[in-house]
Amino acid sequence: MYPIFKPLRSIFKSYSSKEKKLIIALESIVGDKPYNLDLYKLATQHSSIAKASGFGIKLSNERLEYLGDAILGAVVAELLFQKFPFKDEGILTEIRSRIVNRESLNNLGKKIGINNIVEFDAHKKTSLSHKSLYGDTLEALIGAIYLDKGFIACKKFIIKKLFAHHLDLDEIIKDDPNFKSRIIEWAQKQNKELKFETVEIKTEKNYKEFTSQVFINGQSLCNGFGLSKKKAEQDASQKTCVQLNIP
Amino acid sequence: MYPIFKPLRSIFKSYSSKEKKLIIALESIVGDKPYNLDLYKLATQHSSIAKASGFGIKLSNERLEYLGDAILGAVVAELLFQKFPFKDEGILTEIRSRIVNRESLNNLGKKIGINNIVEFDAHKKTSLSHKSLYGDTLEALIGAIYLDKGFIACKKFIIKKLFAHHLDLDEIIKDDPNFKSRIIEWAQKQNKELKFETVEIKTEKNYKEFTSQVFINGQSLCNGFGLSKKKAEQDASQKTCVQLNIP
Fold first, then answer.
1. A69 is catalytic
2. Residue A10: inside a domain, yes or no?
3. Residue B1 — very low, low, confident or very high, per pLDDT cuts 50/70/90?
């Protein structure tokens, strides 16, 4: 039967064949027709092919990526909050960072077929942007869906389409070489107060070396070192796990 | 007229006088009655007075703070995205960090009266947690509003109640003049020893937040925040100029 409320767009506007291809790809990725196709077209434009607009800004997906990153962060924060009512905020933050880190998002982007819609200049592409091309575009797509369909629909896309089919949450949580979350969990069970402190930041010409210290019930334990605060804390946590026989 | 759909709660449950006080304070802060008061009660519980639940977790507002932080980040991201259609994502990220940094949130928390609802143990409170007590509780309150009333209502609270009345966005955005050079010039004239130190680097996924501290003759003065060392020093310099009346 012919739909009664056929979108005005499809009556008054005829799409180019490139646009039609994009719509088909989007329907398969998002599971739904776009309302405002322009948003999605912008989401596919990597900065390497950005054209300047009349207002002095480049027309690339970077602003949408910024928005999508924040929306994705909020949705994942709530997902973990609801799924793990008895885990504390330190562990939830830690699990979240394993889901939304650059590598994980890039893999997710590849899995859902972002490679079929992203447009970029292969010659200009640096090795850095290559590592995050699909992940960045995925975030831009999330920004576009949010603006096009609102928070609830965007959340549904992230949880029901993106994660349900392409992310093994249990695997992410189980696969835990992470000493920091081990020690957090241990401290919680033992009812001990745990604190990490960055006690030194050594600035070299091309990098910084961080020194982190673990405190349990106010008493300093192990020092850890690394090129980021996170790595230094991980190192300090590993040493603490060994020293206190934390499994 | 008697409301037809009076909430079940108000028929079956009588509130304690402490709960009634909290409801009145919440109505003034949030501008709306809570549906699930338990969420808001939890949001007011600082970790210093946290009681252990039967499931091995502490009943404090820290999980709600984690959630509220993510929701606030998303709402501010969109607000700036819409308000500044011609600013690039780097600038938006920078402005966002000026709005949601620890000090700014703490001030906002104080302004809307978080001090009237937060419960904490003044003896256990460390100097660190004091600096963020109101800001952290404000984030927990945002988490509670989100769970209680959903994303749209929570976004409305943040934009219409929190920011519209208590945050001067234009002031935040106004380009800073160079405060660091002012303070350097002043120190030279006054023959004082001036030092800047990066005291903290918080690493997020897509950016780092730097905290810089100004020392004059070895004495620590103001903290500043920013997405680069330079910006954090600029922010710390501005505060020092205000504090010391440096023209």
1. yes
2. no
3. very low
> Does the model's ipTM exceed the 0.90 cut?
no
> What's the rounded Cα separation, in Å, for the pair A244 and A89?
23
Confidence of residue B65 (pLDDT cuts 50, 70, 90): very high
Measured in whole angstroms, the distance separating CA B43 from the mean position of its chain's CA atoms is: 14
Domain count, chain B: 2
Considering only A65-79, A120-134, A198-212, which range has the smallest mean pLDDT?
Answer: A120-134
- B218: domain range? 179-243
Do B169 and B187 lie in one domain? The reply is no
C-alpha span between B195 and B193 (Å, rounded): 7
Q: Residue B163: inside a domain, yes or no?
A: yes
Distance CA B58, CA B151 (A): 26
Question: Is A139 marked active-site?
Answer: yes
SS3 B188: helix
Same domain, B66 and B124: yes
Give chain B positions within 8 Å (CB) of A97: 205
Residue B152: closest C-alpha in chain A = A151
Q: For the segment B159-183, what is each residue's pLDDT rounded down to a tens digit?
A: 999 998 888 888 887 755 678 878 8
C-alpha–C-alpha distance, residues B73 and B91, integer Å: 15
Overall average pLDDT of the B141-159 stretch: 97
Q: Of the candidates A65, A74, A191, which has its C-beta nearest B74's C-beta?
A: A74
Longest Cα–Cα distance in chain A:
73
The answer to whether B115 and B106 are in contact (CB under 8 A) is no
A126 — phi, psi (to 5°)?
Answer: -90, 165
Instruction: Supply φ then ψ for residue B52, to 5 degrees.
Output: -75, 135
Same domain, A136 and A58: yes
- Contact criterion met (CB below 8 Å) for A22 and A37: yes
**pLDDT in the model for residue A227:** 75
CA atoms in the 13 A half-sphere facing the CB of B79: 21
Return all residues near A134 (Cβ < 8 A) that are at least 6 apart: A105, A106, A107, A108, A109, A110, A114, A115, A118
- Using an 8 Å Cβ cutoff, are A137 and A44 in contact? yes
Q: How far is it, in rounded angstroms, from Cα B116 to Cα A189?
A: 32
**Cα–Cα distances in angstroms (integers) from residue A140 to residues A71, A103, A132, A145, B92, in the given order:** 10, 16, 12, 9, 15
- Measured CA to CA, the distance from residue B241 to residue B219 in angstroms comes to 15
> Looking at chain B, which residue has its C-alpha nearest residue A68?
B74
Q: Find chain B residues with C-beta within 8 A of A81's C-beta.
A: 63, 66-67
Cβ neighbours of residue B104 under 8 Å, at least 6 residues apart?
B98, B135
Boundary of a domain, candidates A117, A143, A174: A174
Domain boundary among A122, A146, A174: A174
Distance from CA of A188 to the nearest CA of B (A): 7
